[in-house]
Write a structure and sequence with these properties.
The protein is α/β, with parallel strands linked by helices. It has six helices and 14 strands. The chain has a six-stranded mixed sheet with strand order 1-2-3-4-5-6, with helices on one face. Strands 7-8-9-10-13-14 form a six-stranded mixed sheet. A two-stranded antiparallel sheet has the order 11-12.
């Protein structure tokens, strides 16, 4: 059985997930840890549960989901894995900090990345996550789907009763609506772990989210 632990990180309240199973291998999804106490909480959880991180996955390249990439590289030797269309974002986090937030954040960047493709399968322990390319919030946004346990990590593509912004340079409302139409075909019982806010299900979103329909 897959275990999901949520860490709410940084000034934008981003959800970082550590996903593990009974083999004690784990993946880290969207490490937005910015403050020292956030990084400590993540490393303590991994140590106390005797976990072995094997993947660091970014659902997209925006700063708030990647503050902690340098920390994870230093601690566990993992390079971030991201869709190629968001590669430029994830390798220029300090530029994002300056341009979007006026911050001199001095972020530890991880220059080398591994590139993900649509329909790629990421394996850890006894489980696998399927990469689904969902452009709209950004050109390289992805979601991660565990079909066996009907669990979906949606980054900033889908939130509880809302969706991610599409007013960034490479955002697109038509594209995100198309991505959401695809996600709406998943089983209604699929549990959704979004990039911000509370969990939900595909069924709840199809029924009540104005941006989703079948």
């Amino acid at each position: 059985m897959m275990k999901v632990r949520t860490f709410v990180c940084n000034m934008l309240q981003e959800n970082c997930y550590i996903v593990s199973d009974d083999t004690n291998e784990c993946v880290i999804i969207d490490c937005g840890a910015y403050y020292p106490e956030e990084k400590l909480a993540i490393s303590n959880y991994i140590r106390e549960n005797k976990l072995t991180p094997v993947h660091l996955i970014a659902t997209h390249g925006h700063l708030d989901h990647n503050f902690g990439n340098g920390f994870i590289l230093k601690e566990y030797g993992l390079k971030p894995e991201v869709h190629e269309k968001d590669l430029d974002k994830i390798t220029h986090l300090n530029k994002q900090a300056s341009e979007f937030f006026g911050m001199n954040a001095n972020i530890e960047e991880s220059e080398a990345c591994l590139l993900l493709e649509d329909k790629q399968v990421i394996r850890f322990g006894n489980h696998q996550l399927k990469v689904i390319h969902t452009p709209g919030h950004s050109a390289g946004s992805i979601v991660l789907y565990c079909e066996e346990e009907q669990i979906l990590f949606t980054g900033d593509t889908l939130f509880r009763m809302s969706i991610g912004r599409t007013d960034f340079e490479d955002g697109s409302l038509p594209a995100i609506l198309q991505s959401l139409r695809s996600l709406s075909q998943l089983p209604g019982s699929t549990k959704v772990y979004p990039g911000h806010g509370m969990t939900t299900t595909i069924g709840e979103e199809v029924a009540s989210n104005p941006y989703l329909d079948r």
